[in-house]
Amino acid sequence: MVAKRIIPCLDVKEGRTVKGVNFVGLQDVGDAVELGRMYAAQGADELVYLDISATHEGRNTFTSLVERIARGINIPFTVGGGISSIDDAARLLDVGADKISINSAAVRRPQLIDEIASKYGSQFVVLAIDAKMVDGRWLITTHGGRRLTPRELFEWAREGQERGAGEILLTSMEHDGTRSGYPCDLFARLSQQLSIPIIASGGAGSADDIAEVLSAGRADAALAASIFHYGDITVKELKQMLHDRGIKVRL
């Protein structure tokens, strides 16, 4: 049985880590590199850095930050935010990122998944999906959850896998930042339909929530931010609790 992964997520704006609820009401929670280094020391399996600065200057700042992360952190890390072309992906991979996360641009032009996977390999491509329940259906949103599309979650996830995505990073927009738990039925249903790993995101408020999504939710990894940023629990403590409950993790 493959070990479940614990992945702290760091939303980055102009070089600083921020956190909000449903992607708004952002608060500064620390230096992105120092936080990442701390989580690595605690035993995090991977890190995810998401650039939420929309401007061109923000992207330049983020590229410099990725270089600093690559020099200072010894575990794999994924970067995302504003990646809309293979050139954007190449720029970040060339300065040290281990994986690329794509979201809105892939919804707009799905061939982007094929292009990056063909050039670099599926293991470099994480398809991030922000989904929202509307009239009983899970629909895809873009632009940080602000724009609703008619695309249905399960259909899009299957297409992403077929086009070459190596992992799916799924966030429930209703749960993001609320610390109210993950929608485990959603993750379990998606897991049954895909053969690639699924990273659960959005809603972790306790070790119990993470244990539930890794077991009942059948997720391969759990992404969390608030519980780590605000010191509720360390990665090391969380992994020990999961291990004690019979969930396989790397200690």
Helix content: 25-40%
Structure classification = alpha/beta
Question: Beta fraction of the residues?
Answer: 25-35%
Q: Over the alpha carbons, how many angstroms does the gyration radius reach?
A: 17 Å
Task: Report the CATH C-level class.
Answer: Alpha Beta
Instruction: Write down the secondary-structure element order.
Output: EEEHEHEHEHHEEEHEHEHEHH
Report the biggest beta sheet as strand number plus sense, adding barrel if it closes.
Answer: 8 strands, parallel, barrel
Distance between the amino and carboxyl termini:
15 Å
Count of strand segments: 12
Q: Which architecture does the CATH hierarchy give at level 2?
A: Alpha-Beta Barrel
Low-confidence sequence ranges? none
CATH fold-level name: TIM Barrel
Overall mean confidence score, pLDDT: 88
What would you call the shape? globular
Q: What is the domain tally?
A: 1
Kindly report the spatial arrangement of strands forming the biggest sheet. 1-4-5-6-7-10-11-12
What name goes with the CATH superfamily? Aldolase class I
Number of discrete helical segments: 10
